[in-house]
Amino acid sequence: MHLTTFSDYTMRVMMYLGLQRGQLVTISDIAQAYKISENHLMKVVHHLAQRGYIVTVRGKGGGLRLVREPNTVNIGEMIRSSEGDTGLLPCLDTSGTCCIQPSCKLMGILREAQVALFTVLDKYTLADLLQQEGALSHILIHPRSVASIAQD
Q1: CATH number for the domain including 132?
Q2: Entry pTM
Q3: What is the per-residue pLDDT for 148?
């Protein structure tokens, strides 16, 4: 299964916010840390706010922050939310049609594989992704420190 860039950015935003411990950060902060587009992040942030993972604060001094504790944010749930209800192949979607569907064994195998994927993802939370918090913070929150170490 190939996850979309949207899901990738969703996980990156959540990891960044998880490192911030409830502090307000801006989309610009996150975009600079990961060297990615602010425009793409705006869509991701909107999605995460709609789903209740984060809160956004408008105006001067505004930003966004994580609402839920990292240990309550399930990775499988987040990926399902960001990917939507799509299967590994169009024939696995509810609207998919294929001329060999009545006798195709591939559909069952792919359904089983997709279930297995989400069974694994469901075992983990955002807290699991933040286990190396010091190293992640050093890279994402304090990038100048990483650059100076690389030069030494």
Answers
A1: 1.10.10.10
A2: 0.83
A3: 40
